[in-house]
Automatic annotation (TrEMBL):
SUPFAM superfamilies: Winged helix' DNA-binding domain. Keywords: DNA-binding, Transcription, Transcription regulation. This is Helix-turn-helix transcriptional regulator. Residues 10-108 form the HTH hxlR-type domain. The keyword Iron does not apply. It holds the Pfam family HxlR. The keyword Ligase does not apply.
Length: 110
């Protein structure tokens, strides 16, 4: 079967766009690890600013990666959870973690 180079490149570009930012994968990883509230997510990612986390969460919700639930308590409680679609990316993140560990080992033992 012949491969469609143009389609493959477009798919790679879509993936790179999705994971392209400094914070996207750490945010997904945090939420998939059970952090649901804004401050929990923020505390789990050293160096992320409130503004950047807010921007990432909004973009991820627009891209159907997160479900945002607002509870009308006082104060208002907002929780984020990954969609099933977002969870499909988990295998890729796991492989990236494995590759990063192996790469570090290769470089350190060099």
């Amino acid at each position: 079967m012949e491969r469609d180079q143009t389609e493959e490149l477009r798919a790679l570009q879509d993936t790179l766009y999705f994971i392209g930012g400094k914070w996207r994968i750490p945010v997904i990883n945090s939420i998939c690890n059970g952090h649901r509230r804004f401050r929990e997510i923020e505390r789990s990612i050293p160096g992320i600013t409130t503004r950047m986390l807010s921007k990432e969460l909004k973009e991820m919700e627009m891209n159907k990666l997160l479900k945002r639930t607002v509870y009308p308590d006082t104060p208002v409680l907002i929780e984020y959870e990954p969609t099933e679609y977002c969870r499909t990316f988990g295998k890729i993140i796991g492989e990236m973690i494995n590759w990063g560990r192996e790469h570090r080992r290769v470089i350190v033992e060099g």
